[in-house]
Structure to design on (144 residues):
């Protein structure tokens, strides 16, 4: 049985995604994030097939770390045992933030698949708080 929690880095899938990012340099990390967000936008049928909601939430959080207001997300990354500087995209901009926000909306918006299956009302509330926090940071980062 895997780990699956309500924070952006609280699942095995999210941690595996972070491990993959940690092996790349900054430009490659950005390319991976952009490609994921593009797949979610242009091929939504791939969500839950080749791109998983917990990975999208983690990817959006990685973008949020480098934006204004991302300090608490950076701390969550550190609490998960990662050096944020080895994971984040230092050249995150309004375009990347907008792409992350769009992908987050599809994967973990009000009816997104990331919110399906929480076994307790408390978990559902905490999951919604996670995505709302990320969305607020990304919204500011995209200039909205």
């Amino acid at each position: 049985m895997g780990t699956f929690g309500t924070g952006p880095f609280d699942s095995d899938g999210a941690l595996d995604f972070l491990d993959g990012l940690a092996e790349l340099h900054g430009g490659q990390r950005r390319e991976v994030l952009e490609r994921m967000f593009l797949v979610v936008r242009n091929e939504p049928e791939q969500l839950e097939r080749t791109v998983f909601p917990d990975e999208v939430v983690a990817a959006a959080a990685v973008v949020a770390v480098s934006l204004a207001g991302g300090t608490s997300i950076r701390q969550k990354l550190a609490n998960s045992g990662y050096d944020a500087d080895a994971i984040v995209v230092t050249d995150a901009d309004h375009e990347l933030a907008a792409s992350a926000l769009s992908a987050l909306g599809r994967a973990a918006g009000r009816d997104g698949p990331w919110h399906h299956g929480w076994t307790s009302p408390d978990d559902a509330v905490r999951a919604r708080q996670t995505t709302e926090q990320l969305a607020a940071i990304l919204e500011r980062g995209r200039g909205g």
